Amino acid sequence: MKVVVTLTKKFFDQHPRAGQPTGFADAVKAGVKIHTCRDNYDYWVKKVEALKDADGTLCIREWTGRPFRSPQGTIKEIPAATVDVAKLKLTKGQPPFGACRKPTECYLATVDGVPVDVEALARNDGFTDRRDFTAFIDPLFAKYGTDTITLAIIHFTPYRYGSGENR
Predict the structure, then answer these.
(1) Among 45, 84, 96, 161, whose CB has the most other CB atoms within 10 angstroms?
(2) Quick one: which H or E segment has residue 77?
(3) What is the dihedral of CA 133, 138, 143, 145, to 10 degrees?
(4) If you average pLDDT over residues 88-95, what whole number do you get?
(5) Residue 94: pLDDT above 80?
C-alpha cells in the first residue's frame, strides 16, 4: 500500500512569494524538510494507521507543473515504520501576543500538547523563513473563521517534537 503526499513546487497565488519555487523537493532530499503540515487531522490519522497496518510506503511527490493539472514526480519514499502523525494546534493572535510585528507572525504552536517554537516548526517544514510558513498557513484561519486550527503533522523521519532532541 502507498499513501501519497503531494508537495507544491511553487508558492500559491495568495502567498507573498507567489510563483517562486518552494524548494521543498530539495529540502526533503537533504533531510531538512522532515514533515509536512496538512489540514484534516482525522483523515491523516486514519490514512497513516492504514499505511502502518499494511506495512506500506509514504510516497512524497510534487506536481511537475500546475497543481491538479500535471503529472506528479516522486521525491522520496518513506517506509511506514518511520512515518507518524502528530496533532498541531496553531493559535493566531494580535500584538502583544508574542514578539510579533505583523499578524502573520503572531502564532503559538503545540504539537501533541507540547509547546513548540514556530521558527523550528517552520524550519522543519522546509521553510527558510517563518513568515513564509505563516503566510502559507494563514488562509486556513480565514477558511475556518477561527483563531485556532488543528492540523496534522506527517513526519518523514524518526524525529518527534517533545522527544528531547533539538532540531
Answers:
(1) 161
(2) strand 72-79
(3) 140
(4) 81
(5) no
- For the cut 80, the answer to whether the pLDDT of residue 31 exceeds it is yes
- What cell was used for 33? 524538510
pLDDT higher than threshold 90 for residue 17:
no
What's the grid cell of residue 35? 514533515
Strands 35-38 and 107-111, bridge-based pairing: unpaired
Q: 150 vs 63, which has greater pLDDT? A: 150
Nearest-Å Rg of the Cα atoms of the chain is: 16
Query: If DSSP codes are grouped into helix, strand and coil, which group holds residue 112?
Result: coil
108-133 mean pLDDT: 91
- A 10 A CB-CB count for 7 gives 19
pLDDT value at 98 more than 80 = no
Closest CA to 63 of 118, 21, 100: 21
Q: Comparing C-alpha atoms, which of 11, 35, 10, 9 is closest to residue 136?
A: 11
List Cβ neighbours of 159 (8 Å cut-off, separation of 6 or more).
Answer: 34, 124, 165, 167
| Phi-psi category of residue 66: left, alpha or beta, with phi > 0 → left and psi -120 to 50 → alpha | beta
